[in-house]
Amino acid sequence: MISDKIDKLGLKLPDIPEPIGSYLPSICIRDMIFISGQLPMVDGKLLYKGKLGRDISIEQGYESARICALNALSIVKKELGDLDKIKQIIKISGFVNCTDDFTNHPQVINGASDLFAMIFNNTGKHSRIAIGTNSLPLNSPVEIDVLFQSL
What we know:
Elements: H1 2-8, E1 26-29, E2 32-38, E3 41-42, E4 45-46, H2 58-80, E5 86-97, H3 105-120, E6 127-133, E7 142-150
Helix pairs in contact: 2-3
């Protein structure tokens, strides 16, 4: 079971983060669950603030992407009731708040990709985009959205 694997990895799904704008945390269409952009929120606060390449290290960005992924999992668990109902993680869109000369976007978003692969094995393999941007909400270093397919 996925919840057992999460426990064995020493991870904990957080409470579902409150949206910071006028949107829904997720939308389900048939067997697809679209998760809105997730920030690295822990107990209602950003884990880190700032730009990669200036304020935030790649390791802190990686950790931020992991937190975003855990937040996405908490939302999809609410939608499905059970993470074992995930058939496939289809796609991650990752956004990195960074300086103009920062080029390690893939390494940062690997925090989310590696987490999904650890938890879901082949089901966690997905397509992905990693984009650098000049700002993100609340001065977050990272934001991801995720598309899941359910059984």
